[in-house]
């Protein structure tokens, strides 16, 4: 048995980016630890969703624990920073946000968990945080430094296959005539396939992945992009998880981030 620590910016990022590898590792008998930098304080919620007096942060923490149970997580930790909001928002500079945190100080918090857990594998994000959100970029910087401090050798940057995303977006835009997202060839999502080094087939775990997304009901509604798509489309879009491991490649050289453990 080995230990996977998976590091994320906000509640719900874990199931979107790594839900498959988390459930897969748990099914194989590995220990899975989820660390979330913030409680997603700036998430948007539909009017009337929360009970009178209920605050979003408390709800999102509860949703994270529910999703974690579905994904086979043994331990959930929040690093205690607050959500920075989208890049360029005034909230980026609010004291206490993850974006304003010292990388060294935040990395020390994560490294303590990595050492406590004798982590074998850590997942972070790519250097653009997948899509440029400041808290996601910070997951890359802090995660990379924490692995150095803790001596965690196997670090995988969870990302998306940009070539695939652009292809699917242009097909979807052509099908429904919706070009509000702008030209797909300008989508700065994930990384080009040529830069990816691990492709993990999680098709056996897409049901758990989707159930975990459903547990984040304050953020991912039944009408959302993620849950509205028919099961076969969801399976195609979310049945593979992509990673970059520094020093691996070129090309896809791994199909399992827990291989050999
Ligand atoms: Zn996020």
UniProtKB/TrEMBL annotation:
The keyword Metal-binding does not apply. InterPro entries: GlcNAc_PI_deacetylase-related, LmbE-like_dom_sf. Keywords: Zinc. The keyword Nucleotide-binding does not apply. It holds the Pfam family PIG-L. This is N-acetylglucosaminyl deacetylase, LmbE family. It comes from Actinokineospora diospyrosa. The lineage of its organism: Bacteria, Bacillati, Actinomycetota, Actinomycetes, Pseudonocardiales.
